[in-house]
Specification:
heterodimer, A: 340 residues, alpha/beta, Rossmann fold, five-stranded parallel β-sheet, 5 strands, globular, B: 483 residues
């Protein structure tokens, strides 16, 4: 009996190890393709706190460069952005972030408020798989799942990714036990240039009312920041194309909400000239997102607001921060110069 | 749930009424054994049997009626509309009725019980809860096997002592069922779907490929589902009737139908074929035919009529569509033609006596039966009779075998990896079937706890990695649940 028990325990252990190994193997690594899938997990590698945390979708992680903010204003920051990050995911990411640190300001990009229901299973995983397990992750999963999904596939990603066994590449083996850092404090650098050729209006909609659930989460984020004594700031990134259009009707609703709640809101769409954006050089995908040159201009512009209006002090000279950021800046410049 | 309850109530009341009459009949005969002559007893029993038959008929109408309304109304109205359209008459509205899962299975099981009570093979259950348990025993509710009251009743209500070997055997069989379903059936389904949906593009040799692939798919799906059902029951100490016995090793159509979906086959044989072929009406018809058209025809008439009726109903049982009816009738045709050719076979085998045990000959017979059954079964894939015939024709008229070797094999959703999984799965199933000829593998493995645990873990790992499930797959959908 004892022998049977020992043997069965060994078999069970071997099975669990085998499944664990396969799970690690088949999970997407996001190192060379779809790198935005790696962004959320990188936050946990941070060793210092941040003055500002940006939260939102791709418009955030392609628009603000923390190294620029440090270099020009001595403000430390992190971008907790991910592809098609839905507003409830932003809320839970904020909730989680505020458990790790208390920044002076949280900046949220409002574009995702247009979504009232879970959208895409693949994007959900790109945001949620990277989160560490916590009450916030459970909440984010429950709020985000589409009808075809189930909770178990987040607990055991093997259930979701097992079919990748037939499409494994060298990347899956290379990054089995470790990951490279693909972002610069959450900023995903794009150095290409694909000019925006024309301004286009959005496709007319039957209903311009933003979903109520979006405002519910917006209010939850505001309340959370208020509770923690963090300045909550709303922005809309300067990008605006036909496929990803920000309607004036939507903007009016955000302005109204922000004014009612006493929250500052910056819509950068109409400020592009003031920021100095040149749509023939500052975008890598015809105006949908900014490239590094555009992002640096926007960061520089917004950094001034953060410093002037919100009194974020220059922390350069702090030896610990200087050392950390010197390394980050070096990596940033290396990639910007095409050396990595 | 409401439909199961309805079936159970109808079955319970009908059986109780018949039992009451049967008990009264037996008591009367026993009490008057000395005063009644043999003829009087016989006449009394015949009269009572007629009365019970009337009750049975009412029960069958109510039971099968629900199935007929839910499953066949739309089909019937559709056919009436086709006729009406020929006369430019306004069409009837086709009702959209939801078909409860597994209704064909529990209805047939319940109606079989009613016939057994009528025939006095079993006593009617007096406790409604116990009868409800028989009708709704959950592992077999959705796709059978179609159990007999006499086999299942005592097991369901009897005492069960915990038996670790039964538990292990049952659980192994459940895992084995999932292996068949998720490794073979659902992986094959990826390609089958494309072959069916784009049948205009995939004709000729692809139809042959579909026949082979669908055979593997339906075998994995249906036997896998039954393994899960029987395994779950076995784990609880309840032994259900086996539904398959290596059907693809059959050497003739008749043998195939004795090995495939056995409980359905025996149901139709016991409750449709035999009663019909020996019925008084049929005997009279046979006598008349013998007198007017000769002995050969007269003798064949009852058997042939009952066979055709049985297969027509078997087709209809599988689904409300002409493809299912034609499927049933084609099976019937093959069986009847084989029966007619039997004298020739006998002569042939007399001439070549060594062939019967010749491996090559046996393999040829098995291959022939496998392909023939697969060909007829493909009616179930295309679900359109003229289209299916056209595609069968394309196998002879379009010679595109070469395409298979220039990327064709991986052009309909199955990559090299999926093919390897399917072929590997089929190989494992074949090995297990061979190993289990005398004692089923799950029973042999269950006898050794450590080996059992290792095997279960190994299968779970294989299923979790290579199984077709998750986003894009629908593993919960077993094909036979729709019948």
């Amino acid at each position: 009996m004892k022998k049977t028990l020992i043997l069965c325990t060994c078999i069970l252990l071997a099975t669990v190890l085998c499944l664990g190994f396969v799970q690690m193997l088949v999970m997407p690594k996001y190192m060379t393709t779809s790198r935005d899938g790696a962004l959320i997990a990188e936050y946990y590698n941070e060793t210092t706190n941040h003055d500002v945390v940006f939260i939102g979708d791709c418009e955030v992680y392609e628009s603000f460069t923390p190294p620029t903010l440090w270099q020009e204003y001595g403000i430390t920051s992190y971008v907790r952005g991910s592809a098609q990050q839905l507003i409830w995911q932003s809320y839970y990411l904020l909730e989680e972030t505020l458990k790790y640190e208390t920044p002076k300001a949280v900046v949220f990009n409002v574009f995702s408020i247009k979504y009232g229901v879970p959208q895409n299973e693949a994007y959900n995983h790109m945001t949620l798989d990277g989160m560490k397990w916590s009450q916030s992750k459970v909440g984010a999963i429950n709020a985000s799942m589409t009808e075809e999904e189930n909770f178990l596939s987040y607990v055991f990603p093997l259930l979701r990714y097992h079919s990748r066994w037939s499409e494994l590449t060298g990347e899956d083996w290379q990054y089995l036990y470790h990951r490279d850092t693909v972002s610069h404090n959450g900023y995903l650098m794009q150095t290409g240039i694909a000019p925006k050729t024309r301004d286009a209006d959005g496709i007319p909609l039957a209903n311009y009312s933003l979903p109520a659930v979006g405002f519910e989460y917006l209010e939850k984020m505001r309340a959370l920041c208020e509770e923690k004594g963090v300045e909550f700031i709303l922005i809309k990134a300067p990008t605006n194309t036909r496929g990803y259009y920000w309607y004036n009707e939507w903007d009016a609703q955000i302005i109204s909400w922000a004014s009612e709640k006493g929250v500052d809101y910056y819509n950068f769409i109409s400020l592009d000239e003031e920021i100095g954006l040149d749509w023939s050089t500052d975008t890598y995908d015809k105006g949908v997102h900014l490239n590094v040159y555009g992002a640096e201009k926007l960061t520089s512009y917004f950094g001034n607001i953060l410093a002037e209006k919100y009194g974020l002090s220059d922390r350069r000279g702090d030896s610990e921060l200087d050392a950390v950021w010197a390394e980050k800046l070096a990596a940033y410049q290396k990639e910007r110069n095409g050396e990595s | 749930m409401i439909f199961i309850l309805y079936t159970a109530v109808v079955t319970y009341l009908t059986a109780r009424l018949m039992q009451k009459r049967a008990d009264r009949e037996d008591a009367y005969v026993a009490d008057n054994r000395e005063t009644l002559s043999k003829e009087e007893r016989k006449s009394y029993r015949a009269k009572e049997k007629k009365r019970r038959l009337r009750i049975l008929t009412a029960g069958l109408i109510l039971g099968f009626g629900m199935l007929a309304v839910l499953k066949y109304t739309a089909f019937a109205v559709g056919n009436v509309n086709s006729i009406l359209s020929m006369f430019n008459v306004e069409k009837l509205t086709v009702p959209s009725l939801l078909l409860p899962l597994g209704i064909s299975f529990y209805t047939f099981q319940s109606m079989g019980y009613l016939i057994d009570v009528y025939r006095k093979k079993v006593r009617a259950e007096g406790n409604f809860a116990k009868l409800l348990l028989f009708v709704s025993f959950f592992p077999q509710l959705l796709q059978g096997p179609i159990s007999r009251f006499g086999d299942l009743h005592e097991q369901l209500i009897g005492e069960h002592k915990f038996d670790a070997t039964n538990l292990r055997a049952g659980l192994f069989r459940v895992v084995w069922g999932y292996f068949k379903k998720l490794i073979v059936a659902d992986t094959a389904m990826i390609g089958i779907k494309t072959l069916i949906e784009q049948s205009d593009k995939f004709d000729g040799v692809y139809v042959f490929l579909l026949i082979v692939l669908y055979s593997a798919q339906i075998y994995g799906d249906f036997t896998g589902g039954i393994d899960i059902t029987i395994g779950l029951s076995e784990a609880m100490g309840i032994k259900l009737a086996e539904n398959f016995n290596r059907p693809f090793a059959s050497r003739s159509t008749k043998e195939y139908w004795n090995r495939w979906h056995i409980t359905m086959g025996t149901w139709f044989t016991d409750y449709i074929f035999y009663p019909l072929s020996v019925s008084k009406g049929m005997q009279k018809l046979s006598l008349t035919a013998t007198k007017k058209l000769g002995k050969g025809f007269g003798m064949r008439l009852p058997v042939y009529t009952a066979t055709i009726a049985t297969w027509f109903l078997t087709g209809l049982w599988h689904g409300a569509g002409w493809n299912f009816i034609v499927w049933g009738l084609l099976n019937c045709l093959v069986i009847l033609v084989s029966r007619e050719l039997e004298p020739l076979y006998r002569i042939f085998h007399k001439r070549f006596p060594k062939l019967a045990n010749n491996r090559v000959w046996i393999t040829w017979q098995m291959t022939r039966t496998f392909l023939l059954m697969g060909l007829i079964r493909s009616l179930d894939c295309y679900r359109d009779v003229p289209k299916t015939f056209r595609l069968w024709g394309s196998m002879l008229t379009k010679w595109n075998v070469g395409e298979l070797f220039t990327g064709g094999l991986t052009s309909f959703g199955l990559g090299v990896a999926e093919w390897c999984v399917i072929l590997g799965g089929v190989l494992v199933i074949n090995i297990f079937d061979r190993l289990g000829r005398e004692t089923p593998v799950h029973r042999r493995v269950a006898a050794k706890p450590v080996a059992w645990f290792a095997a279960v873990c190994a299968f779970v790992v294989v299923i979790l990695i290579f199984g077709a499930y998750g986003i894009g797959y629908d593993a919960s959908q077993f094909i036979y649940q729709q019948f």
